[in-house]
Amino acid sequence: MSYLEAKAKYAALGIDTDAAIAKLKDVPVALHCWQGDDVRGFDTDPNKPLTGGIQTTGNYLGRARTPEELMADLDFVLKLCPGTKKMNLHACYAIFDEENGGWVDRDKLEPKHFKKWVDFCKERGLGCDFNPTFFSHPKCDPLTLSSPNEETRKFWIDHGKACIRISTYLAEELGQPCVMNIWTGDGFKDIPADRIGPRVRYKESIDEILSEPFDFNKVKPCVESKVFGIGVESYTVGSAEFTLSYAATNKDKCIPLMDNGHYHPTEVVSDKIPALLAFFPEIALHITRGIRWDSDHVVALDDETKELCKEIVRCGGLEGAVKIALDYFDASINRISAWTVGFRNVQKALLMALLTPDYTALQNENNWTELMVRQEELKTMPFGEIWEEYCRVCGVPGDGQWFDTVKKYENEVLTKRG
Ligand code: RNT
Ligand code: ZN
Fold first, then answer.
1. Is residue 306 annotated as a catalytic residue, yes or no?
2. Is the Cβ atom of 224 under 6 angstroms away from ligand 1?
3. CATH number at residue 43
4. CB contact at 8 A, 205 and 186
5. How many domains does the chain have?
6. Which of 43, 173, 212, 224 is catalytic?
7. CA-nearest residue, atom 10 of ligand 1
8. Would residue 334 count as lying in a domain?
9. Is residue 392 situated within a structural domain?
């Protein structure tokens, strides 16, 4: 079947495929730099353990070890991904060199430590999101923003404030808002004696970070919740209720972020999107694939990813209300492929959502019979042809046309890394 034949099939359902393609092309989706090096960063010993209750598993060859390698890998991925890409950096990816005075600790980070990233983004026309890094650092005691130790807490508050200034710099240099996500792995392995103390301290710490002046049109601070982490199974300071309440009571300076790996396994973020959008003008997402826990597998084109993207589209999220970012890190497979497959799958799910007729009227007429028939029949529509056309319009390879180039890059470049 050709694109024109597929287009006619969708037109019969009242869907304009060209309009769907044109719309998706301009929607920013943030590509996380941390898939490329297993969340190690450049500011501390790369062989230190990853803390905060997150974990990368696997030891596939070719991890990026330097900013140059990470940027080269990102460049490869960017060329394989259709649509509007945005970078997403963590503070631990600061680049220190002689020109900017060398290494400083996280509480002393400055915009100049991200100048090379700004140059990278500018050359490629990308915006950039940002994340303070509250893990994998000797100052995690193991708590950070919720620590009872005032010195620890201050260090991390100062880090958060530094990150607000860096986010302002990224937004101003790149001319696009910078979503700055606050997530900590603070929590306990076993039953705590005091559950409210850490939460009150966490709240006060975020208040202090957000007291750093910023323009909410340029910097979009988020708070990300979590159900539990590895080694911190009993109690999470930044639980769903905590972060949602924080965002709800600080709507003038903060938005809620949902990561779909951060809920109990039968809970779905697809359903939480409209629930939050009934109250918040803006929300943020980390799209991932959790298997049994927050395992951060590469995003697949599975039912929940499709449903989640359907809700983004149906709720008007593509007009800016939903800040879309990816968050997964698989170290057991080729990282370029991991990045690319996940990004392309999110694009596929968004495109499918844009090709879905609005059946609200059937629902409101209580016509559940026809609604089921229509929704099920959509599943065998010729989506592949529209996807290929989208890739063509975006100037990236279609399915079946990119993996060999990754294999070549693996042989020629990645295998040479120690
Ligand atoms: C961890 C959170 C968090 C991190 C990144 C690296 O469970 O999802 O967003 O994955 O900040
Ligand atoms: Zn996340």
1. no
2. yes
3. 3.20.20.150
4. no
5. 1
6. 224
7. 327
8. yes
9. no
pTM above 0.85, yes or no: yes
> Is the CB of residue 183 below 6 angstroms from any atom belonging to ligand 1?
yes
Specify if 235 maps to a domain: yes
Question: Nearest CA to 117 among 79, 70, 77?
Answer: 70
Residue 286 C-alpha to ligand 2 middle, in angstroms? 5
Query: Has residue 128 been placed in a domain?
Result: yes
Does residue 105 carry a catalytic annotation? no
> Tens-digit pLDDT profile for the chain (418 aa)?
899 999 999 999 999 999 999 999 999 999 999 999 999 999 999 888 899 999 999 999 999 999 999 999 999 999 999 999 999 999 999 999 999 999 999 999 999 999 999 999 999 999 999 999 999 999 999 999 999 999 999 999 999 999 999 999 999 999 999 999 999 999 999 999 999 999 999 999 999 999 999 999 999 999 999 999 999 999 999 999 999 999 999 999 999 999 999 999 999 999 999 999 999 999 999 999 999 999 999 999 999 999 999 999 999 999 999 999 999 999 999 999 999 999 999 999 999 999 999 999 999 999 999 999 999 999 999 999 999 999 999 999 999 999 999 999 999 999 999 7
Q: Best mutation site among 224, 228, 262 for ligand 1, i.e. most ligand atoms within 8 A of its Cβ?
A: 224
Q: Whose CA is nearest to atom 2 of ligand 1?
A: 183
Domain that holds residue 211: 27-360
